[in-house]
Write a structure and sequence with these properties.
Blueprint: E1 7-9, H1 20-27, H2 33-40, E2 52-53, E3 77-84, E4 88-89, E5 93-96, H3 107-111, E6 114-116, E7 119-123, E8 129-132, H4 134-147, H5 155-168, E9 180-189, E10 201-211, E11 225-228, H6 252-260, E12 265-270, E13 275-279, E14 282-283, E15 286-289, E16 295-299, H7 310-322, E17 326-329, H8 334-340
Parallel strand pairs: 1-8, 2-5, 11-12, 16-17
Antiparallel strand pairs: 3-4, 3-5, 3-10, 6-9, 7-8, 7-9, 9-10, 12-13, 13-14, 15-16
Helix pairs in contact: 4-5
Length: about 350
């Protein structure tokens, strides 16, 4: 157990480091010198040791863990860390959960300068609270912030602050084997001007909420998919590999159309070959016997259109360690997929 009372388990990914050259190769000339400098330099950041805590005086009743729905219940506290170009990072603050105050011209509202992460805290049968590979989420969040031209932050310091928030609201982690505490780190531009430019003001905040299964059918029951040949979730050269809100809003209309056809999720396809990419907001795996008769586990490669999921990487690591079947990261078309299920 750490000092914060939160034990992190499994593997912690190495800290993300990036050179100017790899940034240019990944994101092209669209990243200006200021963004490149900010992405490379992290000499100024907030510190966990400076965290300030204001406990709520009006604690809410805890919901029944067996009746939880995703994203509708929230804990008593939240973490906020403000940044400005003039003053740098403010001290991290854990405060009572409440509304944010934003200028009507804040660029997050107009140009979608924002990103987020999704992770969970689990209460084990030993009553210990654990996070699963949390540094992988911090790495991905940092990479998204570079692409979104938001100021850099220290990933380890954010993880410490986030863990402290979970510790403060530890009684909200369900005493359950089917429910968990969802953690939503979010990073937005609060720049109060209408110009399209790198922001001079930003806010990083974290909210928590107990959740049950994402799908009403339960955690381990099959879902029906609609293979969409008209709409595209992401494309090469875009931001499909970043966890930005702008990737999710446009998927709601196709999702509604899929629901009208009796399907629960969209199977996203890409290109003239209708390559399988993702399912809804999730990575996809296919287990089959390939053309050579080999048992194979396939998932699409990280080519810029796929979000590098933490669960995705974990499944690949496990499957490769078993050495029981072929494990491949490669493209798979609908034509190949339909042929395999005949």
């Amino acid at each position: 157990m750490s000092k914060l009372g939160i034990k992190t388990v499994c593997y912690l990914a190495k800290s993300y480091k990036c050179t100017f050259q790899c940034l240019r190769q990944t994101h092209g000339q669209a990243l200006n010198n200021r963004v490149l400098y900010n992405a490379y330099s992290s000499t100024q950041t907030f510190k966990y040791e400076d965290i300030q805590i204001e406990l709520s005086k009006n604690l809410k009743p805890k919901p029944d863990p067996d009746k939880l729905t995703f994203g509708k219940s929230f804990t008593d506290h939240m973490l906020t860390i403000a940044w400005s170009e003039q003053n740098g990072w403010d001290k991290p603050q854990i405060q009572p959960f409440g509304n944010l105050s934003l200028h009507p011209a804040a660029s997050v509202l107009h140009y979608a300068l924002e990103l987020f992460e999704g992770m969970k805290a689990y209460r084990g049968v030993d009553n210990k609270i654990r996070l699963f590979r949390p540094m992988s989420n911090m790495d991905r969040m940092y990479n998204s912030s570079v692409r979104c031209s938001l100021p850099p932050f220290d990933k380890e310091e954010l993880l410490k602050c986030l863990s402290k928030l979970v510790s403060v609201d530890k009684e909200w982690v369900p005493y359950s084997t089917t429910s968990t505490l969802y953690i939503r780190p979010t990073y937005i531009s609060t720049e109060p001007t209408l110009g399209v430019a790198s922001p001079g003001h930003a806010l990083l905040f974290v909210i928590l909420g107990p959740v049950g299964p994402y799908f009403p059918t339960g955690a381990f029951n099959p879902v029906t998919l609609y293979a969409d040949t008209e709409n595209v979730r992401a494309w090469k050269g875009g931001v499909g590999d970043c966890k930005m809100g702008s990737n999710y809003g446009p998927t709601i209309m196709p999702q509604k159309a899929a629901a009208a056809k009796g399907c629960q999720q969209v199977l996203w396809l890409y290109g003239e070959e209708h390559l399988l990419t993702e399912v809804g907001t999730m990575n996809i795996f296919v287990s089959w016997h390939n053309e050579q008769g080999e048992k194979e586990l396939i998932t699409p490669p990280l080519d810029g259109t796929i979000l590098p999921g933490v669960t995705r990487k974990s499944l690949l690591d496990l499957a490769r360690s078993w050495n029981e079947f072929k494990v491949t990261e490669r493209t798979l078309s609908m034509k190949q997929f339909k042929k395999s299920i005949k």
